[in-house]
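Q: Could you fold this chain for me?
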Amino acid sequence: MSTHQPIPRKALARGSDVLVELPVTVWPTAQRPHASQRKGRYVGESTAHPAKMLPAIAGHAIDTFTAPGDLVLDPMCGVGTTLVEAVRKGRDALGIEYETRWAGVTDANLALAAHDEAAGHGQVHLGDARRVLPDLARRNAGRVALLVTSPPYGSSVHGQVHAPGHRPVRKHDNRYSRDRANLAHRSLPMLLRGFTDILRRAIPLLRPGGVVAITTRPFRLDGELIDFPSLTLDAAINAGLDPVQRCVGLLAGLRDGKLVPRSSFFQLDYVRKLRDRGVPAWVIAHEDVLVLRVSQKRQSSHELKGSSAPVSGLDTGVGHDIERVDGSGVAP
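A: Sure. Below is the predicted structure, expressed as structure tokens.
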């Protein structure tokens, strides 16, 4: 197991070399266009989220690392992609979302899945994951087979565009809320420390041998390429997780041995502008899916601490439910 020092406060461009040492697998997760993966399975407002996880990536992780009836967790669930893919595959799912709007969309997506007679049951909790997770751990300790999540890359990422003929192109739905307590609005070092804390508090929910799959990608900050996957992996190791594998979740299709680009307007526009400035930039065509497990030492510690407490089941209710948790502000 690797030992890492706390993440420094100064801005970071790249992490350690652990990422490049991991075995690599490629997931063909964009054989269908992104929009078609959601069509008929998610409510329309889902498209408004500025940084949605690709359904096929969540689905591939669920198929690979769980079996029907298992429990899946996403502590930063956004519009509930992980939860929806889990319940539609016969797994139960727990999610946490900080923003009220997206928690409501998650609930609507779970309701749609229930209407379609999905075999699994899902539940979304509203609040800061760092405050919600300890309560969930008391009720579901050692039950989660798979944690799938994706940290925010910043306050403005993807989004939609409107091109009204001869008028200038207008962006919309390309930002999280204006709540400055949201980790998406924090500096990179604070975001990484917050994400480390979330993972650390999620570990008691994982069963022995439970898997953590984190989707992330590099991004540019003021033109500088940030190796966010390696930084995210370091944060996960600091939380007490052992890296197992790096999976390349393609955002481009595969046809006749070639990539079929599915880049967004924002990606293409940004790369063109960088190239006009002489920066040798390329469009990113994959997500890094970082696969980890709880370190044996950490797992044993949690088992000893919780050995006298009964393991409670998930109260799934009627197939979908949104639970509001008080004290949802982010701790400093």
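A (continued): Confidence is low (pLDDT under 50) at residues 1-11, 304-320, 324-332.
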